[in-house]
């Protein structure tokens, strides 16, 4: 029997982690890791595509589809993206959904964006360069 100390992976936590992926990637490579906007919502950074993909599901674990496996193969071939994903997971993956949400709520890009609006990638890049990426 396996025992894990971490929370189950939730839709909310995935969006928080993707916020860190986008910010780190912008800071390091000067371009987006993915094209979707990150919106400031009352629960923190959110991504419409993730919300639509997992509508009605809190936890997003389960059976992998062929599309999921294709996406995984694609990411594994993108060395910069894979390195960024790995670094973000290593830094934030053990945080609970509540802990990571509190952290993103305290950060400038989310605080300075009106609810429902996209977080400006330039603001994200500047913040991550100054405060997160070392």
Let me know the number of strands.
2
Q: Which consecutive residue ranges, at least 5 long each, have pLDDT under 50?
A: none
Overall structural class, as computed from helix and strand content, comes to: mainly alpha
Number of domain modules: 1
So what's the overall shape?
globular
Largest sheet: 2 strands, antiparallel
Supply the number of helical segments. Answer: 7
- Kindly provide the radius of gyration, computed on alpha-carbon positions and rounded to a whole number of angstroms: 15 Å
* Helix residue percentage: 55-70%
Mean pLDDT across all amino acids:
91
Provide the β-strand percentage band: under 5%
Distance between the termini: 38 Å
- Reading side by side through the largest sheet, how are the strands ordered? 1-2
Order of helices and strands: HEEHHHHHH
Question: Explain this structure to me?
Answer:
With 134 residues, the chain is mainly alpha-helical. The chain has one domain. Helices cover 57% and strands 4% of the residues. It has seven helices and two strands; from the N terminus they run αββαααααα. The chain has helices at 11-29, 48-53, 66-77, 79-92, 97-105, 108-111, 121-132; strands spanning 39-41, 44-46. The protein has a two-stranded antiparallel ribbon. A hairpin with a 2-residue loop joins strand 1 (39-41) and strand 2. Helix 1 packs across helix 4 and helix 1 packs across helix 7. The radius of gyration is 15 Å and the shape is globular. The chain starts with 10 loop residues before the first helix and ends with a helix.
């Amino acid at each position: 029997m396996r025992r894990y100390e971490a929370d189950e992976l939730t839709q909310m936590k995935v969006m928080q982690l993707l916020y860190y992926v986008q910010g780190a990637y912008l800071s390091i490579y000067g371009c987006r890791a993915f094209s979707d906007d990150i919106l400031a919502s009352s629960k923190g950074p959110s991504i419409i595509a993730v919300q639509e993909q997992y509508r009605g599901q809190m936890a997003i674990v389960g059976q992998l589809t062929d599309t999921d496996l294709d996406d995984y193969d694609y990411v594994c071939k993108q060395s910069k993206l894979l390195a960024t994903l790995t670094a973000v997971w290593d830094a934030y993956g053990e945080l609970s959904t509540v802990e990571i949400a509190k952290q993103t709520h305290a950060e400038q890009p989310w605080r300075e964006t009106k609810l429902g609006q996209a977080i400006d990638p330039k603001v994200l890049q500047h913040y991550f360069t100054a405060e997160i990426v070392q």
